[in-house]
Automatic annotation (TrEMBL):
Binding site for Mg(2+) 2: 276, 278
A single cellular component GO annotation: cytosol
Cofactor: Mn(2+); Mg(2+)
Matching HAMAP family: Dala_Dala_lig
InterPro entries for this protein: ATP-grasp, ATP_grasp_subdomain_1, D-Ala_lig_Van_CS, D_ala_D_ala, Dala_Dala_lig_C, Dala_Dala_lig_N, PreATP-grasp_dom_sf
Function: Cell wall formation.
Main subcellular localisation: cytoplasm
Top-level class of the enzyme under EC nomenclature: ligase
Family membership noted in the UniProt record: Belongs to the D-alanine--D-alanine ligase family.
Name this protein carries in UniProt: D-alanine--D-alanine ligase
Catalyses which reaction(s): 2 D-alanine + ATP = D-alanyl-D-alanine + ADP + phosphate + H(+)
Binding sites annotated in the UniProt record for Mg(2+) 1: 262, 276
Cofactor note: Binds 2 magnesium or manganese ions per subunit.
């Protein structure tokens, strides 16, 4: 795709989710990159403007740099479907399922794909939930997180049973659904995927080494203490197997455009476990998709242009050439 046939492009950024700050950083990076490529691109913050203005102002397509709710969960995608404006990333259903970690795990398990054991706790059940039963089912340490939040917001790694109620309460502040999950101890990796269906392909795996194994919001975006290893240093056969698993996990959810899947590798068995998928990954200076793309010889600007070229509608499925 050349800048001349991209038309007028809105880079959707900001929004109303807990990840607004990160989205603004992502969006500014994408906007600058597209403008540097000669694209007629403009910033558009859905928290400050009605989406209907996209049609009124003559935008031809949207690059979604929104993260979290009201941007990554199928809601904006549905609005753009109604407006008839092609957009980057997954469609309505795939976005909605992928945003919900519990629904994602249900699909993966139904397809026979490995993901850590879990128990779903509703906010309304907090007063009656059995901590002892949770610990018996999932063991310790245990991961407790909101089912529909990103950027590690509201996530706790619980080492002791007495700390479970506080972790549940923290997650409940973010979501009515709380995902309690078996903690897999071992290597943490992430793998971006580009494309759709049979053409989907994995980009190089990144191995994440965070301070004390704590890859939280602060260590993701605002410190330089986390190490990102690409090449990952994993054995070649293991890396190839994880890439194949990640592409399959992406395909069964019906994703398109791009995504990034987080994986834990059990230190003892070397079994990889799928954690979650991001269908509108970060594009900040600390973000992992651009880092992986660079390792594959794809510059940030070219990556943004390629993603824009994949903009489509669920009900048209006609991407740009």
């Amino acid at each position: 795709m050349s800048a001349t046939n991209a038309g007028k492009v809105a880079v959707l950024m900001g929004g109303r989710s807990a990840e607004r700050e990160v989205s603004l950083m992502s969006g500014q990076g994408v906007l600058s990159a597209l403008q540097a490529e000669g694209v007629n691109a403009h910033a558009f913050d859905p928290a400050e403007r009605e989406l209907s203005e996209l049609k009124r102002d003559g935008f031809d397509r949207c690059f979604i740099a929104l993260h979290g709710r009201f941007g990554e969960d199928g809601t904006v995608q549905g609005a753009l479907e109604l407006l008839g404006i092609p957009y980057t990333g997954s469609g309505v259903m795939a976005s909605s399922i992928a945003m919900d970690k519990t629904m994602t795990k249900r699909v993966w398990l139904a397809e026979g794909l490995p993901t850590p054991a879990y128990v779903l706790v509703r906010r309304a059940q907090l007063a009656t939930v059995s901590v002892a039963q949770l610990v018996e089912t999932l063991g310790l340490p245990m991961i407790v997180k909101p089912a529909r939040e990103g950027s590690s917001i509201g996530v706790s790694k619980v080492l002791h049973a007495q700390d479970v109620p506080a972790a549940l309460a923290a997650a409940a502040q973010c979501d009515a659904d709380i995902l309690c999950e078996q903690c897999i101890v071992g290597d943490e990796v992430t793998c971006p995927v580009l494309g759709e269906g049979d053409t989907a392909r994995a980009l190089p795996i990144i191995r994440i080494v965070a301070p004390e194994g704590n890859y939280d919001y602060q260590n993701k975006y605002f410190t330089n203490d986390t190490q990102y290893l690409v090449p990952s240093g994993l054995p070649a056969l293991e890396e190839a197997a994880i890439e194949a698993l990640v592409v399959k996990a992406y395909q069964v959810l019906g994703c398109r455009g791009w995504g990034r899947i987080d994986v834990m590798i059990d230190a003892a068995t070397r079994q990889p476990y799928l954690l979650e998928i991001n269908t509108s990954p970060g594009m900040t200076g600390h973000s992992l998709v651009p880092m992986s793309a660079r390792a594959a010889g794809i510059s940030y600007e070219v990556l943004c242009s390629q993603l824009l070229a994949s903009a489509a509608l669920d009900n048209a499925q006609e991407s740009l050439g």
